[in-house]
Design brief:
The complex is a heterodimer of chains A (147) and B (110). With 147 residues, chain A is an alpha+beta fold. Helices cover 27% and strands 38% of the residues of chain A. Chain A has a seven-stranded antiparallel beta sheet with strand order 1-7-6-5-4-3-2. The chains are: A alpha+beta (147), B alpha+beta (110).
Chain lengths: 147, 110
């Protein structure tokens, strides 16, 4: 069992263009599918409304870092949009976007970590017990996002 | 996203300890075991085994069954499978989000 998500995608656009799509609140909202209220600021909560199953929900994350031009991170409760659930007691996960210039444009990697808030070595041990099926799933997703 | 994210956090937290992982690995063959047997296997005191079993039970990863005057413990895989499905679902959400980001940026560039 792993509590760590890592996905990459190649985008045919320069790093600074992708960085803007991630950190400009209006652009972020366009692709993420949320109406973000205000420009992102380090250490501050960013809030927005999301349409989910035909209803409006509030989504929020706390911006941790905006290191132009190649790093953006925030903490949140992953895709937490169910109104009947109180997420405030949960430990938030950390989402990190890393951008790397390539010949074709930008290689973007997103990681989400902290689902169990334990050191990596212990996660690895827990994962071995579960015979590697998550790693196979990761490879499927890689094929999927690159396909 | 699935309902019980908080429950999954309990499962992940329960798994985040070597001793508990060791106990779970011992129990994962499907056989039920007593505290005495688990403590003999692991060289832990009975009190330590009891404490860790309580955490695992709280996360639904083990269930206790009474056999005569003795409590025996059995591994339950469901919470682990549920937690993994949840991670898979969050991961699938990211796959979708990244595809939309790519489409959004590339449309703008071309």
């Amino acid at each position: 069992m792993t509590d760590y998500i890592k996905q990459s995608i190649d985008i045919a656009a320069p790093v600074e263009r992708v960085y803007r799509a991630l950190t400009d609140h209006v652009e972020f909202g366009s692709w993420f599918g949320a109406n973000m209220e205000a420009p992102f600021e380090c250490g501050k909560f960013a809030r927005g409304s999301v349409r989910f199953n035909g209803a409006e929900h509030i989504m929020a994350f706390r911006v941790v870092a905006m290191d132009r031009p190649d790093f953006f991170s925030f903490t949140w409760h992953p895709f937490a949009v169910k109104p009947e659930i109180d997420y405030s007691d949960e430990i938030p996960t950390l989402v990190e976007f890393r951008l790397k210039a390539t010949a074709a444009g930008t290689h973007l990697t997103v990681t989400e970590s902290g689902f169990d808030a334990v050191p990596e070595a212990r996660r690895a041990e827990a994962f071995r017990m579960n015979n590697g099926s998550w790693e196979a799933q990761n490879r499927n997703l890689k094929t999927h996002v690159e396909g | 996203m699935p309902a019980a994210a908080a429950d999954h956090a309990t499962v992940f937290a329960a798994l985040g300890d070597r001793t508990r992982l060791h106990l779970l690995m011992t129990l994962s063959d499907g056989a039920t075991r007593s505290i005495a047997s688990l403590s003999a296997d692991s060289r832990l005191t009975r009190q330590a085994v009891t404490k860790h079993l309580k955490v695992l039970e709280g996360a639904g990863l083990v269930a206790s069954v009474r056999v005569g005057r003795e409590s025996r413990f059995a591994y339950r895989p469901e919470p682990m499978n549920d937690a993994r499905s949840w991670i898979d679902e969050v991961s699938a959400q990211w796959a979708g989000a990244l595809q939309r980001l790519k489409a959004f940026v590339e449309e703008d560039v071309s």
